[in-house]
Amino acid sequence: MAFFSSFFKKGESTALGVDIGSSAIKIVQIKKKNGQAVLETYGELALGPYAGLTIGQAVALPPDKIAQALVDLMKEKEVGVSTNKCGISIPSSSSLMSVVEMPEVSAKQLSVMVPLEARKYIPVPISEVMLDWSIIPKSEVQAEVQEDDTTPASPLPIAKIDVLVVAIHNETIARYQDIVAKAGLEAGFFEIEIFSTMRAVLDDTLRPVMIMDIGAASTKLYVIERGIIRSSHTVNRGSQDITTTISKSLSITPERAEIMKRQVGLMGEDKNMTDAIVLTLDYIFAEVNNTILAFEKKYNRAIAKVILVGGGSALKGLSELAKSNFKAEVVSADPFNKVSAPAFLEKILKETGPEFAVAIGLALRRLGEEE
């Protein structure tokens, strides 16, 4: 699911993925060598200081400030970006996703019917949004039920299908085009961040999994089955809320709280700090369990795995606490395993990997479209 892919120009052998988050920008540059995706460089830059705030804080910056931060990151000697051709992520919060039930008709008929039906779910005129949609494949369970159901029915009911409808406001697209232009980049496509994440972290499993994306301002939950988003939910708590709670509980500055959170996390001996972190996580975990329960109740299928991504998932001890709270298996995403990198970077890439899932997913798509 992507937008403006027709703008893509083929021929480049190097691909850049740019993830503009609420608290930081992450970039990943890869190239194709001997049929393999090879990591060339990657980097991250906090946006808080560009708004006079601390590292880790979510900010709402104007396009020129974001563009400046992006240029600063690309110019860093350690990063050394060598291409201006890229793929850019658009936050899921700037899009609207709905699963709509439609009659099972031809693709041509659907292309006329979906925009009409989408009006019920989109609070602005259709002319003001970029609309995309895809059919959700029927699961084997549903197919078997339909095939085995020999109970006579008269008349036969009209067959239905589920369609995933995605809308992005034209103003959002224009904003990101403005950032791209001001940063001197050329965007081959814009893609909603969850689709980039899925490309970077999912394997070929057919079982339902949850992607738990812990950002600075919020935590986004997605249930994915057979490569399709079955449900999504946003929790209005994120890693900056953990920092704020630590700051208040220990009577320390937000700057100091952020440092302690990153260095110690849940692995420290200070019970007050651990309690402060758990206070925020308990709320998030309760929402996760509610989302899992709702899916399992609706589809009668269990979530097999919870995959942790996002900057907040780097919190030390988070995986262990999550495992004790969820029935499903819990793993930290390792998107860098999709690219070849020097052995000496293996440990650091595994630790920072969950933060770069979106940027890697964008770069992988860009590289794939060059073939």
Largest sheet: 5 strands, mixed
Strand order of the largest sheet: 3-2-1-4-8
CATH topology of the largest domain, by name, is Nucleotidyltransferase, domain 5
Q: Assign the CATH architecture of the largest domain.
A: 2-Layer Sandwich
Intertermini distance: 19 Å
Please estimate the helix content: 25-40%
What's the number of structural domains?
A: 2
Order of helices and strands: EEEHEEHEHEHEHEEEHHHEHEHH
The overall average pLDDT, rounded, is 87
Low-confidence segments, given as residue ranges, are 1-12, 140-151
Strand content: 25-35%
SS field, number of helical segments: 11
Task: Please provide a written account of the structure.
This protein has 371 residues and is α/β, with parallel strands linked by helices. It has two domains: 5-94 and 169-369, ATPase, nucleotide binding domain (Nucleotidyltransferase, domain 5, 2-Layer Sandwich), CATH 3.30.420; 95-168, Dna Ligase, domain 1, CATH 3.30.1490.300. Helix content is 36%, strand content 26%. It contains eleven helices and 13 strands. It has helices at residues 63-75, 107-118, 140-148, 170-182, 193-201, 239-250, 254-263, 271-299, 318-325, 346-352, 357-369, and strands at residues 14-20, 24-33, 36-46, 85-90, 95-103, 129-136, 160-169, 186-192, 209-214, 219-225, 228-235, 305-309, 329-332. It has a five-stranded mixed sheet with strand order 3-2-1-4-8. Strands 11-10-9-12-13 form a five-stranded mixed sheet, with helices on both faces. A hairpin with a 2-residue loop joins β10 and β11 (228-235). α5 packs across α11 (357-369) and α6 crosses α7 (254-263). The two termini are 19 Å apart. The model is unreliable at 1-12 and 140-151 (pLDDT under 50).
